[in-house]
Amino acid sequence: MAHKHVLLIEDEPNIAEAIRFILSRDGWEVTHFAEGQGAMAALRAARPDVLVLDLMLPGRSGLEILAELRAEPAFAQLPVLMLTARGQGRDREAAERAGATAFLAKPFANSDLVACLRGLRGDKG
Amino acid sequence: MARSPLTGTRIRERRLAQGMRQADLARSVGVSPAYLNLIEHNRRRIGDDLIAQIAAVLAIEPVALSEGAEGALFEGLREAAAGHAGVAAALAPEVERIEELVSRFPGWAALLAAQQARVAALERTVEGYSERMAQDPFLAATLHEVLSAITSLRSTAAILVETGEMDPEWRSRFHRTIHEESLRLSDTAEALVAYLDTLEEAESGLSSPLEQVEGWLARCDFHLAALEGARAPSPEVMVSGVPELASGAARTLALAHIARARADALALPLEPLRHALEEDGLDPARLAARFGAPLARVFRRLAALPPGSGVPAVGLVVCDGSGSFTYRRPMPGFALPRFGAGCPLWPLYEALSRPMQPIRAVLDLAGRVPQRFLTYAICQPSQPGGFDAPQVMEALMLILPAPHDAGPQSRAVGVSCRICPRIACPARREPSILA
What we know:
The complex is a heterodimer of chains A (about 120) and B (about 425). Chain A is α/β, with parallel strands linked by helices. Chain A has helices spanning about 15-25, 35-45, 60-70, 90-100, 110-120, and strands at about 5-10, 30-35, 50-55, 80-85, 100-105. Chain B has a six-stranded mixed sheet. In chain B, α6 packs across α8 (about 105-135), α7 packs across α8 and α11 crosses α13.
């Protein structure tokens, strides 16, 4: 099976643990960060296939991280799945403008998360 | 112009029914008693503006004065028809046959108009609640907690149900997660219910008098342009007919605010103040020295300038000696709690313990997106005191965006202990729902 690497930025530890378990069973290597600062360095070093980014983060917000990401040519095309809260219409619009590839509203079905990531990577199965 | 020759008669009847003297009504709307007397005896026509002012003072719809009770019914039916403006032509109300409807079916017409009035009132109520829900920092933080707990519970429970073979250690961890998040959800829901219960205790069923005044001022961008001129309208005229000032208490507060704002505008006129801001910048102490005004007046004036005055976004919080808020102009990014007190580390409260001593502090405001602000605070007597009564003090805190060169010295604060993530803060007075 081709190597699949996802970088996850999510500050809620229990949500992050569940996502790591789900994606690991689907064959993904998951690198997790609870905030954006360390994640940017890891992004540059590891070049994941997909980034899963929570919108609401302490310190730097998901929007700020996304904007910084898209400003770097190397990450202009990186698929980014944004995790949002239902009702955050304005934030979703801002994330779209900042370059998010897809959105998944919390709470989500585990199967939807897996399907989203497969779709972003272009997997047929 | 008055549509009915009996407008004056209706005004007189309504005034007498309320036990109001002619001179009092005349003063309230800015006309002489002699002129009002001519109006009431239908010897003078009056314009729609004066009808509206008189109607506001007499607490009656203007159309009831200009057209009588029947006119009010027609107005209600027209409003009901306007609410269906987008329907297909075949289903559109026959507006041109309103009079026929009223004459043939007066009961149904009255019912339709009354239902329309109720719908409009309910829509205003819903809009008010929606506005509060959207802007309330406690609600936003609480709902985020609820959503995070539910997301974790859903994913974890699905893993346990849908995964076949699982390492016992993982299964044990997920069971623990469900237990933890259930407790978190329970505590947060309890706090949310308690908070929503307090919404039912407000005087008008929608908001407190202070919030009604704040709603009115927010609609005016916190600037009352009518007070800038050499002659200002009477405060009673300014508050009459204002939809946000739904209660007598709110109107009383608004009148006091207008009186103070007028005094501030006379002491620090707009154009000289703008000129001073260009020369001295946004330095309250220099402005106070330049105009010979107390700092509190400078704070209030800066927070009441019209948009486009060259001043960045400004917030202002005022509290009395008990720490209760008496005025709130929010600053983007610096949420002000709706109920209870703010963070005890705010310079606002520090000023209460150091009367007459100006305080300047850069604040690092905790939150999901921490922000930095420059604040000025002062505590001064709110009215002249005497030797035989306690001094009545108030504290003010002006909130500005922190300049880029604000320096490294700053104070870590929150919005309110209830939603502050600084768990180890020595000033914490109650547990945070974010614990």
